[in-house]
Amino acid sequence: MVDTDRYNEWFAMAQKDLRSAKILFDHDADNEIVCFHCQQTLEKYLKGYLIAVTGELQQGHNLLKLCKKVMINDNTFNVFLKDMAFVNAFYIETRYPAIDPFIVSKEDTEECFRIVNTLLARINELVGISK
After folding, report:
1. Does a structural domain hold residue 131?
2. For the segment 65-80, what is each residue's pLDDT rounded down to a tens digit?
3. What is the dihedral of CA 125, 63, 37, 47, to 10 degrees?
4. Rounded Cα–Cα distance for residues 40 and 66 (Å)
5. H-type helices in 79-130, by residue range?
6. Which domain holds residue 95?
7. How much is the pLDDT for 1?
8. CA-CA distance, 77 to 67, in Å (whole number)?
9. pLDDT for 101
10. C-alpha span between 36 and 61 (Å, rounded)
């Protein structure tokens, strides 16, 4: 399978992850899985935005690295670095069993949603998507 280089398709897939996260949260699913979907939302939105501004699909899942690549074109994204580090923790640690389980609080989950909403609003504004 080859990933698409059309940014709007990345945004559409990200919206599916966000919708899934909201449904899971509203139905008291494990916060770990909800936060994983939030991480996936951000990853896909950052990749989509990078396609929109550079024409190139970026590899990797690390939100900090993706955000730093965005900063090459728009340094104002530096305000998101701390948030990307926070959500980055939910990519691997939430998916695999561990000796010391990774427990995610409701407050952490709500913070993930806040971060997602803020970043998506900024990117939508930059690419001219009204919500």
Report:
1. no
2. 999 999 999 999 999 9
3. 50
4. 12
5. 81-88, 106-127
6. 7-126
7. 46
8. 7
9. 79
10. 12
Q: Residue 127 in contact with residue 119, Cβ under 8 Å?
A: no
Residue 2 within any structural domain of the chain: no
Would you say 4 and 45 are in contact if contact means Cβ atoms under 8 Å apart?
Answer: no
Polymer length in residues for the chain: 131
- Count up the domains in the chain and report the number: 1
Share of residues in the chain with pLDDT > 70 (%):
93
CATH label of the domain that carries residue 65: 1.20.120.330
Q: Are 115 and 108 in contact (CB under 8 A)?
A: no
Tokens standing for residue 57: 């699909």
Tokens of 9: 């398709």
pLDDT tens-digit series, residues 28-84: 999 999 999 999 999 999 999 999 999 999 999 999 999 999 999 999 999 999 999
What are the residue ranges of helices labelled H in 1-131? Answer: 7-26, 31-54, 63-73, 81-88, 106-127
